[in-house]
Amino acid sequence: MSVVQHLPALQVVIPLLAAPLTVLLRHRALAFVVALLASWTAFGISVALWLQVEHGGVVSYAIGNWPPPWGIEYRVDRLSAFMLVLVSGMAAMVLPYCWRSVEHEVPAQQHYLFFTMFLLCLTGLLGIAITGDAFNIFVFLEISSLSTYVLIALGRDRRALVASYQYLIMGTIGATFIVIGIGLLYLMTGTLNLVDMGQRLAAVQGTHPVLAALAFLTVGISLKLALFPLHQWLPNAYAYAPSPVSAFLAATATKVAVYVLLRFYFSVFGQSQVFGLLPMKEAMLLLALAGMFAASTIAIFQSDLKRLFAYSSVGQIGYIILGLSFDSASGLTATILHLFNHGITKGAIFMLLGMIAIVMGGTSLSRIQGLGKRMPLTSFGVVLCGLSLIGVPGTAGFISKWYLLLAALENGQWWLVFLILLSSLLAVAYVWRFVEVAYFREPRKDTGIDAQVPLSMGLPAVLLVAATVVFGLITGFTVGSASKAAAFLMGGLL
Amino acid sequence: MSLGGHFTYFITIFLMIAGLFIVIARGNLVKKLVGLGIFQTSVYLLYIAPGKLVGGTAPILSEAFTVYSSPLPHVLILTAIVVGVATLALGLALVVRIREAYDSIEEDQILERDNQPGREDAA
């Protein structure tokens, strides 16, 4: 019983303590084992928390036994439980993949540090999802961001350094905007606890500092979640980072930022303030559409697969934000669903790309000619995930797009249905570029190393590809969790 | 409230804009980090200045005083300073590595060197 009580704290503390442990061990294999155990434990805890929330409602944990709103509160509700499962689940999948992947992509003497940074990044992301304290969100955001910058800089290409530096500048500006927003809210309400803040904001609703806080938070978080046109850091960061890092970030980092946005919009400000007093609905709708079309179009013209799918990520974030802009329970359901479904799809794609990079020596389109013959299973996996990005029935991507369409119809916005389908055609175009090069071109003689993909890399990738299909057919867990979380947010309850 | 009563806000906003402007307008990677530092510092002021009450003392309960300044912003900003130092350290470390790899810390030169023909496939 006593351990079960402390699960919310352990969720964050275990990876946090494991991180310095890997530094002390200074040994590649030992560090890997510690990281693996920590991430699997974190996944176990998040599933336990999800079950607890599913059956017993919100779990509140007072850190150091200081009761909220004075102390820092960890609060697991339906939405955060779902996010915790996604983040820790992806970490549990990506870590085994790291073991052999970093051998190819990171200098040997830095391997244990890679695992340290990975654990810190995991700590930060889990912390953002679980904490009920506004300033704590900022601290965890910086923990995850700082470790992310290091992880990206570990990439082999020297352009990884520049990508990391650019991300550092943009990310810090974003985080500072978020602190300014939180600071203004703190000045107006005198509290940092999110629930308490939400209640006290009612008294100062619509005042200028509160609206300014809303604007600062929106811009800051949009930078973090790579909302078009604040996405410039993302393509380079994903393209030059080591592939397990790309997989983990694409699946979790931007998604957790979306979580922060949802948390502030619906739990702190309340939708009447966000959508009533400022034209957020229209702004979000426009930016989402711009992202869906512009980023997907740019993706079509990329010559490197990693960059192609990075731009596709920016486009897919458009769908996520589109669901938010409907300001309805079904729109939010679509948003939360797409968070999850796109997360696992992109995670799978970047894992497969990492395997392709090992065998073919790179991921540029000119290098992977004839991939269908050389790596039939891997190319098939990329195609399956591509179908999920397009939204073909039978894949996870279809489910979330279906709910998005339903939400658009519910709002009576017929033209949006047309636009969503049209932007899916752009996804067809960029996935087709891969298909054409991989299946309809002869393999180049000079590329391709005679390397086998290690099982420890293949297995997690196969599992994630399978998950993309499974969550497209069996939707009980995802749709159930997403719709309950959406109803919860719309109810104004935290 | 007079103009003078708001002077901390004016300083805050001036620092904020100056910092952000340096980040955007300068091409030198170290100067960008300096701008980022100024931008972050402005937030420290945003938090701490309103915590001080005129005539307030340190929050140690005593018979002699009734007005106390709020200590919480200081604690929060202590954390933010640590974050700022870490960001600056990491940023400078990256600049060192960038200089080793590119032999330059000017943004335009770095971008130029990456866009040289023949580099696309060399990765």
Fill in the keyword field for this structure.
heterodimer; A: 494 residues; mainly alpha; 2 domains; two-stranded antiparallel sheet; 21 helices; 2% strand; B: 123 residues; Helix Hairpins
What is the mean pLDDT of chain B?
86
Low-confidence runs of chain B: 118-123
The CATH topology of chain B corresponds to: Helix Hairpins
Structural classification of chain A: mainly alpha
Total number of beta strands of chain A: 2
Terminus-to-terminus distance of chain B: 61 Å
Distance N to C terminus of chain A: 25 Å
- Give the CA-based shape of chain A: globular
Largest interface: A-B, 32 and 32 residues
Task: Describe, in plain words, how this protein is organized in 3D.
- The complex is a heterodimer of chains A (494) and B (123).
- Chain A is mainly α and 494 residues long.
- Chain A contains 21 helices and two strands.
- Chain A has a two-stranded antiparallel ribbon with strand order 1-2.
- In chain A, helix 4 runs antiparallel to helix 5 and helix 7 crosses helix 10.
- The longest helix of chain A is centred in the last third of the chain and has 32 residues.
- The mean pLDDT of chain A is 89.
- Chain B has 123 residues and is an all-alpha fold.
- Chain B has four helices and no strands.
- The longest helix of chain B is centred in the last third of the chain and has 31 residues.
